[in-house]
Known about the structure:
The complex is a heterodimer.
Chain A: E1 2-5, H1 7-17, E2 22-24, H2 32-43, E3 50-52, H3 57-69, E4 74-78, H4 80-85, H5 87-95, E5 101-106, H6 120-124, E6 131-134, H7 138-155, E7 159-164, E8 173-176, H8 180-186, H9 210-242, E9 249-252, E10 259-263, H10 267-280, E11 285-290, E12 292-294, H11 298-305, E13 310-315, H12 325-333, E14 342-347, H13 357-373, E15 380-382
Parallel strand pairs in A: 2-3, 2-4, 4-5, 5-7, 6-7, 10-11, 10-13, 13-14, 14-15
Antiparallel strand pairs in A: 1-8, 6-12, 9-11
Helix pairs in contact in A: 1-2, 1-7, 3-5, 7-9
Chain B: E1 26-30, H1 40-44, E2 50-51, E3 57-58, H2 68-72, E4 78-82
Antiparallel strand pairs in B: 1-4, 2-3
Amino acid sequence: MKKMLTGNEAAAIAAKLARVKVISAYPITPQTVVVEKLSEFVADGELDAEFMKVESEHSALSACVGAAAAGARTFTATSSQGLVYMAEMLFIASGLRLPIVMANANRALSAPLNIWCDQQDSMAVRDCGWIQLYCENNQEIMDTTIQAFRVAESLSLPVMVCFDGFILSHTAEPVDVPEQKDVDEFLPPFKPQYVLDPEKPVTMGPMGVPEYYEEIKCMQQEAMRAAKEKLVKVDAEFGKKFGRRYKLLERYHSDDADVVLLTMGSLSSSVKEIVDRYRERGEKVGLVKLKSFRPFPVEELIDALGHAKAVAVLEKNISFGSAGALFLDTAASFINVEKPPLMLDFICGLGGRDVEALQIKEAIRAAARAAESGEVRKAVRWLGLREKLVGLRT
Amino acid sequence: MKLTAGAVITEPGNAAKNKTGSWRAFRPIIDVEKCTGCGICSMYCPEPAIHKGKPAKVDYDYCKGCGICANECPFHAITMVPEGKR
């Protein structure tokens, strides 16, 4: 049934449809409605789950770790400062191989204090061993969250479902809400491999001495590699049942394009509009929208971008002193490939700055110039930057 | 042996398999003449890797060489000797 839902509502309803057993979360803008909705569902008896109120995000994820270890399907949601406050527990959840699912409404990090959207928060914890999936619209939030439990539980890996704060979290659009019985068929109850049970004692979280630690970390990496295949398989099954598929990445008029843009999240929608305009004029511009940032689909990206003359990465994060995280991983993917495309990185949309059509066109023009001349004079640039304010131009 | 996902240990009470004696830098040596067999050393040993008796007996498989026994012995019957020296 189609409903008008915000991204936050879509995430909360998806968790309810997944019949989560334990929710522990702490409210933070712009994620608050996820927590609010779920606590309402529990209070109204619509969802048979334990809602654990805690005093911080660190405690929220700690509670989730305990719940998941005890064998409960577990959900949490956060944003920005909350996510980085969870950082310590993020690594523990993945190291213990607990299939927790989290909704993260992407928001900028302080300082300066900023509650608006960028993807710096989840990028800051990209190495924490969680699968990271980025959503373009509210339907994708709904569908990805439901899929996330299947993927998480089959590989014992936690999953972070990321969606842009305010742009998606607070914007209502029509979302097809799956029927409970269909979700039940798609997502059977969680059957954990190991459970904390006094009748059958096990040790979770032992000391990992140097003789074993490296192997245990390697197993996490192998699980992440397997996750790529699993994401594709689960997505295909989901598509068969619900008629919607997302894949690890989407190719939008990119297969014959000389200039290809690469984005994650809601910005992809804006870029699609611009690509359409170029295509109307017969110009070979395309988009690759990356959904799965972790695991990073190297082979698929090489396949999708390899033919391009120039790739322009548009991303809402920066690794200070280096470049944007998406650009870095994309560039690294081509390290042993013959004749890779030229690559440009455009840092944009930080702290809620609008990424306007003009700026997307500016990126396309710069990439086209690079493609024509065969050289990139400046690989990392800022889009929509008011240069006068930082003294870069008088 | 194959490691489990998340390094879960499914066999309870297997800490004894981890012989911590290799951590030791100093070895407790009992002076049999001075030892009265009072057992205070065994009460203080955090492992426990020293057992009451006359003389007290050190389990070198597990003794980490912390030196608490030597510190607590009222008869100064235990000396900590660097490993590799006699």
